[in-house]
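DATA SHEET
Item: assembly model
Revision: 1
Owner: S.N.
Input lines:
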Amino acid sequence: MDIVYTIWLRNMKRYIRSKSRIIGSIAMPLFFLLFLGVGLNSVVQLPGLGENYVVFLIPGMVAMSVLFTSVFSGIQIIWDKQFGFLKETLVAPVSRLEIMSGQTLGGATTAVLQGSLILVLSMFVGFPLSNPAGFLIALAFMVLIGISFTAFGIAIASRMEDMTGFQLIMNFVVFPIFGLSGALFPISSLPAWLIPLTLLDPLTYGVEGIRYGLTGVSQINPLVCGAVIGGFTLVMTVLGAFLFRKIRI
Amino acid sequence: MTVAIHIEHLTRRFNGLVAVDNISFDIEHGEIFGLLGPNGAGKTTTLSMLSTMLKPTSGSATVNGIDIERDEDGVRKSIGIVFQDQSLDEELTAWENMDFHGRLYRIPAEIRKQRITELLRLVELEERQQDIVKTFSGGMRRRLEIARGLLHHPLVLFLDEPTLGLDPQTRNHLWQYIATLAREKGITIILTTHYMEEADRLCNRVAIIDHGKIIALDTPKNLKDGIGGDVVTIRSPDLAAVAATLAGPWINRVEQHNGEVIVSLQNAEQHISTIVTMLNTHQIPIESVAIHKPTLEDVFLSFTGKTIREEEADGKTNMRMYQRMVRH
């Protein structure tokens, strides 16, 4: 556990120092919230989900910032590889599993912090955060998204040589995961052929879970959400640990 | 325990390319041992195997009496490494880099703190301990890495090209540190280098490695003495003629390299006038004649028939080839 903590601690130190990264990754969901949310608020009708589009959008933006931060945190080990720091960790008398766990928890923590920051900021645009139990449910879903997608990032980074593939992954893997997740629109309003795709996207269950916690309404049963995203977290952690074990430097 | 490292028939292949070819030798406890050779000769691969980062294809080795394949963690605990490429976290301070290392090696908090202070003082970085490593110069980073490598009190310290890319002044400074360390801490130091002067100045014993094989192993003095006598280098527009003309029982060997003719012989001072006369008689122009005592460069030349620079030019293609292989 001490080793996991050591790696986690390093991640935290780096996170706190990277002001530009904190601000940079808040900016996108915040702009989405302002431009899309406020802009479309009067136009969009959400039958059965309350009247307010901004309130609908906020859980999606929280999930978005958790998703992007965690994938990015996971992929960051490529930098450690390139700048040599990974060697220092890998040659120490510690197991790969400990290193991977520390990295995953570190990434998940920063991701949840970023998501919470969005949540706090969204209260300024009128988000009613009144139910503490609901907040804890949302937090649990954020943690699961954070862990699963950091592990996902580590899995990808373990197979990548350098950062050249980063844009490709972001555009063709992470952005579709976000786009299909129902963070921006209710799943029920989609054309029938698109719904199965959405239901295949693990993030959908994360977004719906957070939405249930924060607004009390969701289109998928929160227990199903918990089971799916929990299972996904397990699979990703195992996959990430497996691929990280085989990393060569 | 007098043997720090014991290597037996150690071999490493990368898809048919033999990077380390059946090497065997012992390194004594407390000595500074140099692995000298051109880039791509197999120095780093040897070090990677000894530090358990890479599995040998065949053969075996023990470090501090621990088998490198049977007990990886045991070996790792007992060694310190300074890699060829930098391996610091640039976003953290010097202290934090040390602290991270100390925690990874599970050094208790009190002892950790005390040792970090002591080591940062040793490498003269105590005043910069709270500064982010990004602001450090190349020499400071190297010193920090050496201090970090010593934090868990290893019995053996590996230094992979410790002075690569540093300016001559910093290099000199670093040599002094390394020599002091070996003396004061009594640890065994194994360093790889392709700087002849570095091996000569620092090492108690040197193994010359080329194409994965150990081609000579002895003290720098014995190696140089083995050449027999002195070295005369002659520059001339017509090297072939110089080489063809110089002959006699007092000449050990004549070779052409890098635009020079290199003659090894005994008592060069007595024969220099003979050499000049011989060349004059044959009307061969001379640009310069120099006498020097043999260096490790001459030793390398006498064993491989090439200078280390010529080897490196050849080796570069090889290097690229197996860097690619290592990655896949």
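QC remark: Chain A has eleven helices and no strands.
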